[in-house]
C-alpha cells in the first residue's frame, strides 16, 4: 500500500480530523525499508493498535516516523514537525496556534538532560505535560499513558 492510499484510508477512520501529517509519520515508521510501500500486515497493525488505544505504541511510531535521521532522538525541527502533526490531528490550527517548541524543550530540560534533543522517553513524559498534545491523543481514545 502506498503512502497516498494509507493516508486516504486513515482519513476515512477519522473523517472529522486533520490526520494527514499524523498518518505520514505513522507510515514513515512502518515503511522500514524506505520503499514507499507497506504491506497489509503492517497496515493491519495500525488498525489494531488504534482500535485498542495503545498510546505507547502510537507515540513510538510517530516519534520514530519523525526521527528523519534515524538517531533515536529528535532535534528542534523534528519536534516542531511532530507537534504540528499531533496538534493538527487534535483539531488545533497550527497556522493560528503554532507549537511552542521552545517551551516544550524547556519542560523537558527542566526534568531531563538539557541536550537540545528529545528521546522517546522524554517525548512520552512530555506529552502528559503538553495540554494540546495530550488532548489530541485523548481525543482519539489513546488513554493508557497520556492521561
Account of the 3D structure:
The chain is mainly alpha-helical. The chain has one domain (3-139): EF-hand (Recoverin, domain 1, Orthogonal Bundle). It is built from 8 helices and no strands. The longest helix has 14 residues, at 76-89. The protein is globular.
Summary tags:
single chain; 147 residues; mainly alpha; Recoverin, domain 1; 8 helices
Q: What is the count of β-strands?
A: 0
End-to-end CA span: 33 Å
Let me know the largest β-sheet. Answer: none
Provide the helix percentage: 55-70%
Number of helical stretches of at least 4 residues:
8
As a whole number of angstroms, the C-alpha radius of gyration is 14 Å
Any idea how many domains? 1
Annotated CATH homologous superfamily: EF-hand
Morphology: globular
CATH-derived architecture: Orthogonal Bundle
CATH fold name, please?
Answer: Recoverin, domain 1
SS-derived structural category? mainly alpha
Uncertain runs with pLDDT below 50, 5 residues or more? none
Estimate the mean pLDDT confidence: 81
Give me the secondary-structure topology.
Elements: H1 3-13, H2 20-30, H3 40-51, H4 55-66, H5 76-89, H6 101-111, H7 120-127, H8 131-139
Helix pairs in contact: 1-2, 2-4, 2-5, 5-8
Summarize the structure.
The chain is mainly α and 147 residues long.
Amino acid at each position: 500500500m502506498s503512502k497516498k492510499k494509507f493516508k486516504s484510508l486513515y482519513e476515512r477512520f477519522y473523517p472529522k480530523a486533520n490526520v494527514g501529517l499524523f498518518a505520514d509519520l505513522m507510515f514513515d515508521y512502518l515503511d522500514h525499508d524506505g520503499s514507499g510501500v507497506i504491506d497489509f500486515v503492517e497496515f493491519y497493525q495500525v488498525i489494531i493498535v488504534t482500535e485498542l488505544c495503545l498510546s505507547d505504541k502510537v507515540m513510538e511510531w510517530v516519534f520514530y516516523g519523525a526521527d528523519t535521521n534515524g538517531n533515536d532522538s529528535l532535534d528542534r525541527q523534528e519536534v516542531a514537525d511532530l507537534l504540528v502533526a499531533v496538534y493538527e490531528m487534535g483539531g488545533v490550527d497550527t497556522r493560528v496556534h503554532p507549537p511552542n517548541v521552545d517551551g516544550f524543550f524547556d519542560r523537558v530540560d527542566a526534568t531531563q538532560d538539557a541536550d537540545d534533543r528529545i528521546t522517546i522517553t522524554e517525548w512520552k513524559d512530555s506529552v502528559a505535560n503538553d495540554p494540546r498534545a495530550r488532548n489530541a491523543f485523548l481525543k482519539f481514545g489513546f488513554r493508557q499513558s497520556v492521561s
